[in-house]
Amino acid sequence: MRTALVTGVAGQDGVYLARSLRAAGTAVVGTVAPGFAAAEPRRVYLAGVELRELDVRDGAALEALVAEVLPDEVYNLAALSSVGRSWEEPELTAATNAAPVERLVAALLRLRAERGHDARLFQASSAEVHGSASDSPYARAKAAADEVVRQARAEHDLFAVCGVLHNHESPLRSPRFVTRKITLSAAEIALGRRDTVSLGNLDVHRDWGFAGEYVEAMRLQLAHDEPLDLPLGTGRVHSLQDLLEQAFAAAGLGEPGDRVVQDAALLRPSDTSVFVADPEPAAAAIGWRAQVGFEALVEHMVAVDLERLRSGVPEAVDYLLPAGIRA
């Protein structure tokens, strides 16, 4: 049985990836933040995953875990993933998003040199690295991590790749992100639990896809014959205004109108107005294209938020996949 080490396994991508790997018969060891309680609702998604508490900023502990687990594949998904928060905590962002990649590469090279064990590394990169707002602490940290991966590949022949991820969402996205903030707010307004939602710039355009599909691309990248960095996205772009309108419609609310309050405090110091992926490299190299459309994604997120509010159940396996998609 192959073994995969997944950092940040309790995050959105970690959950979907771990479940996909387990379904394929791969043993999964996943890191969670210290203090991940036995009663944590997200455990419902991680049956069969061996959970290890680890702060990825603890480089020695990270290297020791790699040596112990002896993984065939490593997926580095642990990150401070909010661009907005990175402006508030730039040092934490660098320590979480960049430095651990150096330690992972060092650990994998040591495994090969000392024990003859070759493992492959997937690094979750971001389209933010290539945008006009690439001076954000988040983008700088991701760019530094990408460079570590490229150097390991070029100088040490390590099978290491970057998946350049465009925006990918699901009901597991934190409400700190504007996409989930919108779907949750639409559900709350529909149920009479709030009246308005405060938002910043609605004119940003993004390539939004379903996270559950993107993890399949990660697996395909590591299974490919040669290590390739690939952009991962749908190739279709929508504005945040489009997402807002779609969410309100899905909640049965009609036009957002005066239910939206513009808040200048929610504007980022800098932002790229348009991000859209070129889907052709991934289609040509690994045969992957996103299938879940924008409307279906937003409708699914709203439907799950409505169910959460009505039932009081924060997490359930039934929440993971849009209608018509099977596990």
Automatic annotation (TrEMBL):
InterPro entries: GDP_Man_deHydtase, NAD(P)-bd_dom, NAD(P)-bd_dom_sf
Keyword GTP-binding carried by entry: no
Its EC number(s): 4.2.1.47
Domain of life of the source: Bacteria
UniProt keyword list: Lyase
Signal peptide region: none
GO MF terms held by the record: GDP-mannose 4,6-dehydratase activity
Domain NAD(P)-binding: 5-301
Gene3D superfamilies reported in the protein's UniProt record: NAD(P)-binding Rossmann-like Domain (3.40.50.720), UDP-galactose 4-epimerase, domain 1 (3.90.25.10)
BP GO annotations: 'de novo' GDP-L-fucose biosynthetic process
Cofactor: NADP(+)
Family from the record: Belongs to the NAD(P)-dependent epimerase/dehydratase family. GDP-mannose 4,6-dehydratase subfamily.
Protein name: GDP-mannose 4,6-dehydratase
